[in-house]
Amino acid sequence: xxxxxxxxxxxxxxxxxxxxxxxxxxxxxxxxxxxxxxxxxxxxxxxxxxxxxxxxxxxxxxx
Length: 63
Ligand SMILES: [Zn+2]
Known about the structure:
Number of helices: 0
Strand order of the largest sheet: 1-4-2-3
Distance between the termini: 31 Å
Order of helices and strands: EEEE
Structural class: mainly beta
Shape: globular
Helix content: under 10%
Largest sheet: 4 strands, antiparallel
Bound molecules: zinc ion
């Protein structure tokens, strides 16, 4: 696993897309709008993971 592709809650969101936690239970969080200045949310209450990983990139040319 590449640690640079994992973000902990509170870190800056690098790009829009669908993120999944790393606990293996497919907790998803999507960010489809402007990500500037946004931070990752806390992981779900019943999630045992520690970080978010990028699952699906949003279209890079949708502006
Ligand atoms: Zn989870």
